[in-house]
């Protein structure tokens, strides 16, 4: 593996700050879920802030908005839940769908700062169980696209107005049916829109194969990244053994093998999901210094794409957690991002 001369690292840091985004050629992505106020502070500076507040942080590349909790809701509209940030929204008549123009404005603002904004569907409270038929699944994908994708002539209510998200994240934590046609339809709709790059991601738990997203992960859906939740399970980050090439429980290697041999997209990025605070998960939390060790270990896997944090409110209540993690990701930038070559003089272009 070639490395970039350290003299160029300050320049790269400036480049990253200006063009932060989900980069599927990179091992230094930092993604953060926003929307659930999981630190659960009712007021004060540690309560969940508007999305635009967090987008000022140049260390964060991707935000997953959590969650679309119902796909087919009252009045034929989906439902979203953004905890305290939904308090300033209204509701579209005849539905339970929130109308949140201020979040839409923040999405546009964040995208202007180079952030990738992905809308996450599911979460722990999702209870629809998927779809009864393949046709219903395709119709559900069309509904999500018309509601949150690019604005069309459809009369459907749009919570974010004319703002368009950059893709969708599937986070199902209970049994679901017909999610392959649902996800595949979303992928085809995104591919048909040449105006921008869209992303389709999934957030399985770390035991492999994942119980609830198994069918989608059997090489049937073209995902750009998987945000593997290495917490609340026997394979959590807390089981990582420093200095051991072969890990007994922490199974990033198993997910890397999936990426290379099973995934429909053989260039899919496996992103290590971590609790951002002790209170963010029942188990699996490690402090930033140990997470930095895990990042260093993870770089040996070509599919490694960075770190995902649950969630913004937890991270901001945990000192310099975000800054330390991003520093660890960037410290390996030279060897893992663009494949720059070391010569006597720094190269001015990437070697492919």
TrEMBL record:
GO CC annotations on file: extracellular region
Region forming the signal peptide: 1-20
Coiled coil regions, renumbered to chain: none
UniProt-listed GO biological process terms: chitin catabolic process; polysaccharide catabolic process
Class of the enzyme per the UniProt entry, highest EC level: hydrolase
Entry GO MF terms: chitin binding; endochitinase activity
Domain GH18 stretches: 28-332
Catalytic activity: Random endo-hydrolysis of N-acetyl-beta-D-glucosaminide (1->4)-beta-linkages in chitin and chitodextrins
InterPro entries: Cts1-like, GH, Glyco_hydro18_cat, Glyco_hydro_18_chit_AS, Glycosyl_Hydrlase18_Chitinase
Pfam families the record matches: Glyco_hydro_18
Keywords: Carbohydrate metabolism, Chitin degradation, Chitin-binding, Glycosidase, Hydrolase, Polysaccharide degradation, Signal
EC number of the protein: 3.2.1.14
Family, similarity comment: Belongs to the glycosyl hydrolase 18 family. Chitinase class III subfamily.
PANTHER family, per the entry: ENDOCHITINASE
Protein name: chitinase
Protein's gene: CTS4
């Amino acid at each position: 593996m070639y490395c970039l001369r350290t003299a160029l690292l300050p320049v790269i840091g400036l480049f990253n700050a200006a063009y932060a985004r989900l980069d599927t050629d990179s091992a230094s992505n930092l993604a953060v879920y926003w929307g659930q106020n999981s630190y659960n502070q009712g007021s004060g500076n540690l309560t969940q802030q508007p999305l635009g507040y967090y987008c000022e942080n140049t260390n964060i590349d991707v935000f997953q908005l959590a969650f679309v909790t119902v796909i087919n809701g009252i009045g034929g509209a989906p439902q979203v839940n953004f905890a305290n940030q939904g308090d300033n929204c209204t509701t579209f008549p005849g539905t339970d769908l929130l109308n949140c123009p201020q979040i839409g404005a923040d999405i546009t603002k964040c995208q202007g700062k180079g952030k990738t904004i992905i809308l996450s569907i599911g979460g722990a409270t999702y209870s629809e169980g998927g779809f009864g038929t393949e046709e219903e699944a395709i119709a559900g994908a069309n509904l999500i696209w018309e509601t949150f994708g690019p604005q069309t002539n459809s009369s459907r209510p749009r919570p974010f107005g004319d703002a368009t998200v950059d893709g969708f994240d599937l986070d199902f934590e209970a049994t679901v049916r017909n999610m392959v046609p649902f996800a595949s339809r979303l992928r085809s709709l995104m591919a048909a829109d040449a105006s921008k790059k869209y992303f389709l991601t999934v957030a399985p738990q770390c035991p492999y194969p994942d119980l609830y997203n198994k069918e989608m992960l059997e090489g049937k859906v073209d995902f750009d990244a998987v945000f593997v939740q290495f917490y609340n399970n026997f394979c959590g980050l807390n089981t990582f053994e420093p200095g051991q090439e072969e890990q007994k429980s922490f199974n990033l290697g198993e997910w890397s093998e999936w990426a290379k041999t099973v995934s429909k997209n053989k260039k899919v990025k496996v992103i290590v999901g971590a609790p951002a605070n002790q209170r963010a998960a029942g188990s699996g939390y490690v402090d930033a210094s140990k997470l930095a060790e895990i990042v260093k270990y993870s770089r040996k896997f070509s599919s490694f794409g960075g770190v995902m944090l649950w969630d913004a409110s937890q991270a901001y209540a945990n000192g310099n957690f975000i800054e330390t993690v991003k520093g660890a990701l960037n410290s390996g930038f030279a060897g893992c991002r663009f494949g720059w070559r070391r010569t006597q003089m720094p190269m001015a272009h990437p070697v492919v």
